[in-house]
Write a structure and sequence with these properties.
Blueprint (H helix, E strand, L loop, with lengths): L1 E4 L7 H10 L3 E6 L17 E5 L17 E6 L10 H16 L6 E7 L9 H14 L4 E7 L2 E2 L4 H12 L2 E4 L6 E2 L2 E2 H10 L3 H7 L2 E5 L5 E2 H12 L4 E4 L5 H11 L4 H8 L12 H5 L7 H8 L13 H6 L18 E8 L4 H9 L11 H13 L20 E2 L2 E7 L4 E6 L5 E9 L3 E10 L1 H27 L5
Parallel strand pairs: 1-2, 1-4, 2-3, 4-5, 5-6, 6-11, 7-10, 8-13
Antiparallel strand pairs: 9-12, 14-19, 15-16, 16-17, 17-18, 18-19
Helix pairs in contact: 1-5, 2-3, 4-7, 7-11, 8-9
Length: 484
């Protein structure tokens, strides 16, 4: 079965496409700029993925309808909320051009991800625009399935990143009145599962022409979401609600306190006074799944590996042994909100020998630089209630995903690509990774630390002088093939 995904470069699109491909669907992915699509991440699915370029605000740029031959379902994942003023007009124009282009394709279903809009309330411009788009799509004559979500929790989502910025930066927060508004946050994993489920041929007919509210198992206020994030991260935070911040001042507050743009902050704030909780739960019976709690969703978003594009759906499979090896190239060490020691050196031995040297670190053989210091750190970890170095490793020369390695856990062991990622399981005021990449000519070595609050930053500052001694020598030893 072939499906179309519009907005394939977007937050949802880049998480949905791998799930569609894994499920065996052929995917036609629409983007405005092909050069921005991470095609290298999908090389293993070249025969199942077709990339097309076009802008629905410029209908003349859209490809000929023949590219949609065989498409049965189309995902409409386009929005202009962060594009500044008049975004509602652009969203309506975009939807109309989409329908004009799709109408002759033979497509049988449109799936639209919108927002929960309570009946009988005056809606914000953002929610009104979402409803208007749904009306345009519904009038197309093609069966429309609408999924309406409140706050989507996942690494990289606008809502999650705002919450993370606020809690990580501010020990004491004076929050506007809207933080007492109720919502029903839903994990990105559950959203993707719903999107995937509604196009199933056995379910599609039951979902045709219908709208469903989707949410997690808890109804929370935004203040409780801030406090929940702090709880998961082990941070002590005080939230002091104040009554006098207007929507405009609230937008400026988000703009200056977080990494969001002002147009996006303004659009979001306009909706935050409206309660967005599920009014129906029918979808839970049609597509049953385990709904993640807010804390579980946060833990996944801050999971041990911030994986590229689709952070939450692959890690559990890696740990269970059901991991699809085609995803290995997409697993990334976190890039944002981290401190790191990054080094690169020319390899002085055969590449295979350097890879084997990297693959043999730890355990009985020890570490290639100041082995005594690693053992001392293990003793300190054991005194603090951790495992220390006693776990060693399963095999001195072989590593596989999920292995213990002293006080590390192997997250990626891709020997063909010369890539090893370790995650620290010692007691730390934060999270730590160690990554090695052996290319044809060089060895790249990176130690990454995501601090937890002020104490985490102090820990990095205190240990960094030791990094300046240990890591350069380790790079040199490994690049030379490291032998006793």
């Amino acid at each position: 079965m072939k499906v179309l995904v519009t907005g394939a470069n977007g937050y949802i699109g880049l998480r949905l496409i791998p799930s569609l491909l894994d499920a065996g669907y052929e995917v036609v992915a629409q983007v405005r700029n092909i050069s921005r699509f991470p095609m290298k991440d999908f090389e293993a699915w070249n025969s199942m993925l077709t990339l097309i370029e076009g802008d629905f605000l410029k209908p003349e740029s859209l490809p000929e309808i023949e590219v949609l031959e065989g498409v049965e379902s189309a995902y409409y994942l386009l929005h202009s909320m962060g594009a500044g003023s008049h975004f509602a007009e652009r969203e309506r124009e975009c939807a109309e051009n989409f329908i004009g282009w799709l109408s002759e394709s033979g497509c049988q279903q449109i799936v639209y991800l919108g927002g929960i809009a309570p009946r009988g309330e005056k809606l914000s411009e953002h929610l009104s625009s979402r409803m208007a788009v749904a009306d345009i799509l519904s009038a197309s004559g093609i069966d429309l399935t609408t999924l309406r979500a409140s706050i989507i929790v996942g690494s990289g989502s606008a809502s999650f990143e705002i919450i993370r910025d606020l809690v990580e930066k501010l020990p004491v927060m004076s929050t506007p009145k809207w933080t007492r508004t109720k919502c029903q946050p839903v994990a990105i994993r559950n959203v993707v599962n719903y999107l995937l489920g509604v196009i199933d041929r056995g379910i599609r007919e039951e979902c045709a022409g219908r709208s469903f509210d989707i949410g997690g198992p808890e109804v929370l206020t935004y203040q409780q979401m801030l406090q929940g994030y702090a709880r998961v991260r082990g941070l002590w935070r005080i939230v002091l609600p104040v009554p006098f911040l207007s929507p405009k001042l609230s937008a400026y507050w988000l703009y200056f306190m977080t990494a969001t743009s002002f147009p996006l902050a303004r659009a979001l704030v306009g909706s935050l006074h409206i309660q967005t909780t599920c009014e129906d739960h029918e979808i839970e019976g049609i597509i049953p799944q385990s709904l993640l709690s807010y804390d579980e969703a946060i833990e996944l978003a801050l999971s041990r590996v911030a994986q590229n594009r689709v952070p939450s759906v692959w890690y559990d499979s890696m740990a269970s042994g059901k991991f699809d090896a085609r995803h290995i190239s997409n697993v990334k060490v976190p890039e944002h909100g981290v401190l790191q020691d990054k080094r690169e050196g020319e390899i002085m031995a055969h590449r295979e020998d350097v890879i084997q040297a990297v693959w043999s670190i730890g355990g009985e053989r020890g570490w290639p630089s100041m082995d005594w210091a690693w053992h001392l750190r293990g003793i300190l970890d054991k005194l603090m209630g951790g495992s220390g170095m006693r776990r060693g490793r399963r095999d001195q020369w072989k590593l596989r995903t999920g292995d213990a390695l002293d006080f590390w856990r192997v997250v990626v062991a891709d020997k063909d690509a010369g890539r090893l990622i370790l995650y620290a399981e010692m007691k730390l005021p934060g999270e730590a990774w160690l990554e090695f990449i052996v290319t044809k000519d060089s060895l790249k070595q990176r130690a990454v630390f995501r601090p937890r609050g002020l104490f985490g930053r102090l820990y990095w500052a205190c240990t960094y002088p030791f990094h300046l001694i240990i890591f350069p020598r380790m790079l040199k030893q490994l690049a030379a093939g490291w032998r006793y």
